[in-house]
Write a structure and sequence with these properties.
This protein has 2 domains: 199 residues, Quinone Oxidoreductase, Chain A, domain 1, CATH 3.90.180; 138 residues, NAD(P)-binding Rossmann-like Domain (Rossmann fold, 3-Layer(aba) Sandwich), CATH 3.40.50.720. It is 28% helix and 24% strand. The strands form 3 sheets. Strands 3, 5, 6, 7, 8, 15 and 16 form a 7-stranded mixed beta sheet that branches. It starts with a strand and ends with a strand. The relative contact order is 0.15. It binds zinc ion (2 copies). The site of one zinc ion (ZN) has 10 residues, from helix 2.
């Protein structure tokens, strides 16, 4: 089969690999129908994720059709239409029992990391019973690729950990796919104001269509951005500041726009240390949360898509075939110039 294979920093090749086989009785082999590229894949390609080694097939988000199951798989059979969760859960370890699947002792984020991933014709999914989700009939498949990772990430780590509540004022720092996923799912809780902050004017415009009530272009610098947030909030700041970028500047910004008693929910993947401004926050009664997605909300999010409350298809800006995956990466790498948010890659092989 064909797959996108990592061969060290800035070197990925679309090449032939053996079709995966059942290794453990709890495995399933899934034929990929649609997959996508994540910001994390770009980090991997830069060489930022040392656990990814030469020869690894990339990708951790996809939908597909079950091709084969091991004899220990009971919930799925050949032909079932499924969402692949970006985290693999054994369902039996201490962390899985707490629904903290991201830290499953036998799984977690392994797809496209320590085991072969989804940017291929087929993928092997360990612990299939607890790592796959059935797709109901009459629901558009491309929208559901967004349920593998970005929507649960935005919802669990941004909205739920940040405890977004009715009437609150929230700020989302970063209007990329994850920031937009926060924006869409925060609206389940009816915050009164959603302030979107980003450097890219196109993404800010898009945010308005997705429900942002105010936008701030932070190219004016942190000091002026903080002032603008204060101006919009009676000098108080926001109830919840959600960090969806992963660099020191944006983390800093969150610390200065959160109001007394508020929450900072960090989603961004940070590669560098940040300053924690305890000198101004020690008496501020704030909470700070971090986390890797557990994807326990996939079934709930699926129901909101089914009912029409959530339309994740709106995140998709570009479509490519699997045979054009190198072109898809080029587009995603130049997301600002290409006005790309989420790219869907269809298996045409
Ligand atoms: Zn991802
Ligand atoms: Zn586990």
């Amino acid at each position: 089969m064909k797959a996108l294979v990592y061969h060290g920093p800035n070197n990925a090749v679309f090449e032939d690999k053996p079709k995966p086989k059942i290794v453990e009785s709890t495995d399933a082999i899934v034929k990929i129908t649609k997959t996508t590229i994540c910001g994390t894949d770009l980090h991997i390609l830069k060489g930022d994720v040392p656990s990814v080694t030469d020869g690894r097939i990339l990708g951790h988000e996809a939908v597909g059709i079950v091709e084969e199951v091991g004899e220990g798989v009971f919930n799925f059979k050949k032909g079932d239409h499924v969402i692949i969760s970006c985290v693999t859960a054994c369902g039996r370890c201490e962390n899985c029992k707490k629904q903290m699947y991201s830290h499953c002792e036998n799984g977690g984020w392994i797809l496209g990391n320590t085991i072969d991933g989804t940017q291929a014709e087929f993928v092997r999914i360990p612990y299939a019973d607890t790592s796959l989700y059935h797709i109901p009939a009459n629901i558009k498949e491309e929208a559901l690729v967004m349920l593998s990772d970005i929507l649960p990430t935005g919802f669990e780590i941004g909205v739920l950990k940040g405890t977004v509540s009715p009437g609150e004022t929230i700020a989302i720092v970063g209007a990329g796919p994850i920031g937009i996923a926060v924006l869409l799912t925060a609206q389940f809780y009816s915050p009164s104001e959603i302030i979107m902050i980003d450097l890219d004017e196109n993404r800010l415009e898009l945010s308005k269509q997705f429900g942002a009530t105010k936008t701030i272009n932070s190219s004016i610098g942190n000091e002026k951005t903080i002032q603008k947030v204060k101006d919009l909030t009676n000098a108080k700041g926001v109830d919840v500041a959600i960090e969806a970028v992963g660099i020191p500047t944006t983390f800093d910004l969150c610390q200065f726009i959160v109001k007394a008693g508020g929450h900072i929910a960090n989603i961004g993947v940070h590669g560098k240390p940040v300053n924690f401004h305890i000198e101004s926050l020690w008496d501020h009664n704030i909470t700070l949360t971090t986390g890797l997605v557990d994807t326990y909300t996939i079934p709930l999010l699926l129901k909101t898509v089914q009912s029409g409350k959530l339309n994740p298809e709106r995140l998709i800006t570009h479509y490519f075939k699997l045979s054009e995956i190198m072109k898809a990466y080029e587009t995603f790498r130049n997301a600002a110039k290409e006005k790309a948010l989420k790219i869907v890659i269809e298996n045409d092989l």
